[in-house]
Design brief:
Number of strands: 6
Distance between the termini: 31 Å
Helix content: 40-55%
Oligomer: single chain
Number of helices: 9
Strand content: 5-15%
């Protein structure tokens, strides 16, 4: 199992005071996974960090990086470890969650559709009903009424999307699943007491491809990572100690090389 190395008490105190422990823990978990899953990773040749990242640190010319580090008492390969892990981490994510991602897509295919719709929100049920009839009778357009809306679509002339249905909250997601493009929907009561009048403009079915696989894999990875970080923080930091944690998804521990049969 992968091993997390907790910082000593002094570093832990600094991380806690700066509210950086969660970010540190997130990075260390991913580093520990890569180190455990990719034999020989620590002995790979160091890579130069990408120029945009160097520029963020004030080193515009990559050729000046060694001098930049020397002035600050840092080794020139201080960023190479993180840089080298990125490619390995992307592959580990895919190994861990690609199968689950496709199964999720097949089980909820309709919810992966992207929708584009007009939405008007009001805390006044009577006003929402009035908007509904105005839109239905062609007396006004969503963009005409958007300035009166209390929802986020007020800033976009009443337009929301494209967005995947699965990213929307109930009961809006259910309504859009059942709706066909074009029709004006009667006011929909929301859990917070507001009312929503909407018109579905487009519904584009999702196709399983590399881009969508990467999107869902990243969501599953983030969910696993967030849950693992929360669990470790709930148990409490262990200054200077080692702590094992489970492999994500279907990622299996590496198999030791076996000698070939004679």
């Amino acid at each position: 199992m992968p091993v997390l190395h907790w910082p000593d008490s002094e570093l832990l105190a600094h991380l806690l005071r700066a509210d950086l422990l969660r970010g540190w823990l997130t990075h260390q978990l991913q580093h520990a996974l890569c180190t455990e899953a990719v034999p020989g990773l620590s002995s790979e040749p160091a890579e130069m960090a990408d120029p945009p990242r160097l520029a963020q640190l004030g080193c515009v010319n990559p050729a000046d990086w060694p001098a930049w580090c020397e002035d600050r008492g840092l080794p020139p390969d201080v960023l190479s470890d993180t840089q080298g892990l990125r490619g390995h981490l992307a592959e580990l994510k895919r190994q861990a969650f690609a199968t689950e991602a496709e199964e999720l897509f097949l089980a909820e295919r309709s919810r992966f559709a992207e929708v584009l719709f007009h939405a008007l929100q009001s805390d006044d049920a009577g006003l929402a009903q009035e908007w509904f009839f105005q839109l239905k009778d062609g007396e006004a357009s969503p963009s005409d009424l958007a300035p009166l809306s209390t929802g986020p679509s007020r800033r976009t002339a009443g337009l929301i999307g494209p967005i995947r249905i699965r990213q929307l909250q109930p009961p809006l997601d259910t309504l859009l699943l059942r709706s066909d493009p074009g029709g004006i929907q009667p006011p929909l009561p929301l859990p917070d007491g507001a009312w929503l009048v909407l018109q579905l403009l487009e519904k584009v079915p999702a196709q399983w491809d590399a881009a969508l696989e990467g999107e869902v894999v990243e969501q599953l990875w983030s969910r696993w990572l967030g849950r693992t970080v929360r669990d470790l923080l709930r148990q409490g930091p262990l200054p200077g100690e080692e702590q094992r944690f489970g492999w994500p998804g279907q990622l299996a521990p590496p198999t030791p090389d076996r000698p070939e049969a004679a």
